[in-house]
Request: fold
Amino acid sequence: MVTRLISSTAKQQRFENIRSSSYAVIKVGLEERICTLKLL
Reply:
């Protein structure tokens, strides 16, 4: 029971890390796109 709880929280933490990193990638991509549009 306790080990299952720990593993579930570890999975949740990993999911949060993946989500935040992918969000950062998307944000950087959007900023680059906005910069290129301004240059055009």
Observations:
- The mean pLDDT is 86.
- The chain is about 95% helix and 0% strand.
- Helices lie at 2-39.
